[in-house]
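Lab channel / #folding
Pinned by the channel admin:
"Please post every new chain as: sequence first, then the structure tokens as a reply. Keep commentary short and put observations after the output so the thread stays searchable."

First post following the new format, from NK:
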Amino acid sequence: MVNAKYRVLIPSNTDVLMKVWYEGQKPRYYPGTTSKAQTRPVNLKPGEETKLEIRLEPDGSAQAEGCGMPVGTVIKP
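Reply from TO:
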């Protein structure tokens, strides 16, 4: 198990889609789903903060997608 803490700045009053992934794990999408179709945007007001706890689970495939956290990527739906 890996415990990591990240702080991510996102623009206020903007819909931001969030995907978190790590090698050999299923990607997770906000608000806590592994289904890209069920993802919802995060939209915070100026000065507002939110805290997320994300638990990854093994994807079971032999080929990993890679890992990363594209900081600064904003996708408007």
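NK: The CA atoms of residues 30 and 40 lie 6 Å apart.
TO: also worth noting, The radius of gyration is 13 Å.
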